[in-house]
Amino acid sequence: MPPALTHNDGESAAAGSYCTYSPNGDWIATAGGCMLHLWHASTGRRLGTFPLRAPPTSLAVGAGGRVVAVGDTAGRVYVVQVLVETPSPAHASL
Fold first, then answer.
1. Range of 40's domain?
2. Does 89 map to a domain?
3. Residue 52 lies in a domain
4. Fewest 10 Å CB contacts: which of 33, 55, 78, 87?
5. Interatomic CA distance for residues 75 and 56, integer angstroms
6. Sequential pLDDT tens for the chain (94 residues)
7. Is residue 87 included in any domain, yes or no?
8. How far apart are CA 9 and CA 56, in angstroms?
9. Given its phi and psi angles, is residue 64 left (phi above 0), alpha (psi -120 to 50 degrees) or beta?
């Protein structure tokens, strides 16, 4: 069974309104509460965080797994480049 997705302050990924896997299944993106989070799929470790200016309305990962797009309630669309080094899940940048 995979680990629960939590991080140091106890916030759970389950609190996110939207969730999607990367195309290769290595990481998960969640969006909710005006935040975008990336998580390592195997360990549940949070890889990165990106603040949103309003609550999300949609979440998608590009086919190549290098960008995440998030729409918000104000009509904005954020396109965030994902830099996840493989195979180490410890390094990611949004």
1. 13-93
2. yes
3. yes
4. 87
5. 9
6. 344 444 444 444 444 489 999 999 999 999 999 999 999 999 999 999 999 999 999 999 999 999 999 999 999 999 999 886 654 444 445 5
7. yes
8. 22
9. alpha
